[in-house]
Amino acid sequence: MLIKTSKYYITILLFLVEFSASAQCAMCRAALESEEGGNKAEAINNGIVYLMAFPYIMVAIVFYVVYRMKFKKKTESEAL
């Protein structure tokens, strides 16, 4: 019983504790903070969005292919 309640409290504590996280490595942050124009910062942000988009596109393609395969099997079985 004690172990069960302590796990419960630890879980709640982990959700309530904030962890400080940086979005960039130390070298990227130093390079971006030293520039005045902001061109590097915009390029870094565009690169992050570009890298983030491809996994979502690939997952969407896989789901579309699976959907089409299932739909094709369904229409073939109805035709018989």
| Spatial shape | flat
- Low-pLDDT segments, ≥5 res: none
Strand content: under 5%
Strand elements, count: 0
Question: What average pLDDT do the residues reach?
Answer: 77
Radius of gyration: 24 Å
Plain-language structure description:
By secondary structure, the protein is mostly helical. Helices cover 81% and strands 0% of the residues. The protein is built from three helices and no strands. It has helices at residues 2-16, 26-34, 39-79. The protein is flat and about 65 Å long. It starts with a helix and ends with a helix. The model has no long low-confidence stretch (mean pLDDT 77).
Write the layout of secondary structure elements.
Layout: H1 2-16, H2 26-34, H3 39-79
List descriptors.
80 residues, mainly alpha, 3 helices
Give a quick rundown of the structure.
The chain is an all-alpha fold and 80 residues long. The protein contains three helices and no strands.
